[in-house]
Amino acid sequence: MSQEKLGEAIGLTFQQVQKYERGANRIGASRLFDLSRVLDVPVSFFFDDMSDDTSQQSPRMMVAGLVEEVPAQFEADPMTKRETLELVRAYYRITDPAVRKRIFELAKALASASEAGEAK
User: Structure pTM?
Assistant: First the structure.
């Protein structure tokens, strides 16, 4: 999606989208929510690649005693990861149904082999 189309979808100019992308302007929570809806991703998508250093600079991390723990099930849920979304999008870009089915079967076989290897 182009910056211009993204801007139109959330009511901004493409220049403003560029400023967000470059980090020249901060993105508010409501705007981040708008972006996640337009791009059809969870808000957590934008934080998947955040380094520990960046995370530690968060104001919530700097205020002693007010740090909330992220629930373990949220951290472990593969459906909220950027990698999952990219994999699904790539999978559905495969236009040949037979090839797509073979990729699906391959992924299932690899997962089964991995689980069998871990059980040993």
Answer: 0.47
Domain holding 35, by residue range, is 1-40
- CA 98-78-61 angle, to 5 degrees, is 155
Contact between 8 and 41 (Cβ < 8 Å): no
76 in a structural domain = no
DSSP string, 52-102: HHHHHTSHHHHSTT-PPPPPHHHHH-GGGSHHHHHHHHHHHH---HHHHHH
Number of domain units in the chain: 1
Compute CA distances 78 → 44, 87, 93, 107, whole Å: 12, 11, 21, 15
| Residue 40 backbone dihedrals phi, psi, to 5 degrees | 55, 50
CB atoms within 10 A of CB 109: 10
Q: What is the pLDDT of residues 6-39, one digit of tens each?
A: 888 989 898 998 888 888 888 888 888 888 888 8
DSSP string, 30-46: HHHHHHHHHHT--GGGG
